[in-house]
Amino acid sequence: MILLSFDTEEFDVPREHGVNFTLEEGMKVSCEGTNRILDVLKDNSVKATFFCTGNFARLAPEVMRRIMDEGHEVACHGVDHWQPKESDFAESKKIVEQATGIKVYGYRQPRMFPVSDEEIRKAGYRYNSSLNPAFIPGRYMHLTASRRPFMKDGVLQIPASVTPWLRFPLFWLSLHNLPQWLYHLLVRRTLGHDGHFVTYFHPWEFYDLKEHPEFKMPFIIKNHSGRQMTQRLDSLIKMLKKDGHRFITYTEYTNLYPQK
Length: 260
Prior knowledge:
Elements: E1 2-8, H1 13-16, H2 23-44, E2 49-52, H3 54-59, H4 61-69, E3 73-76, H5 88-100, E4 106-107, H6 117-122, E5 127-128, E6 150-152, E7 155-157, H7 172-177, H8 180-194, E8 197-201, H9 219-222, H10 227-242, H11 250-256
């Protein structure tokens, strides 16, 4: 089973590098990227989960409508991506549900920062996908964390996929920078070991970042961005479909998982 997802947030990476970047500019980039993603998903007839910030849900109603109309799941990704707050778990759910008119069941913390399991449960989420159990010093150094989904306080924890032994991450940066054949090989081996594959990308990766030196983006992020990343996503999906794998949303997976 393939759990494909997108952290659908206002683009704020330039701010991490000292660039004065407005919310309006960030939304323009992310809206264009999201539509490119949706085009690829539609062409391949697969469904995904879009973890949306409160900002994105409020400021991009047409894109949000397209996400829902084309059968994808909407989940929560905080309120303001640049300034996560402890109150975001409940506030994000309130904003996204009001903006979309649907019930939201899942959460992912911006930048996969630590979350309060108690607050996630109290806010009424059924699953949380805020863990990248990789072997990367810093934010993703989670050697003792489970690689596989697990229940905690009645909430299903769905970690991002990493390779079985070295815990090499198979998230967005890997598809940007590894040769495609190698990334596909690692995904296949992880699927063979785990039986499922969980990964995530961002809309701004599908924007032509290399055409904007004023963003001051690091090479590893700009590498193969824009239309090249669109092609890479398309190739990944086609490979997985050819191998006979089924794409499901995170809520569909949660419904299949034993609750005790």
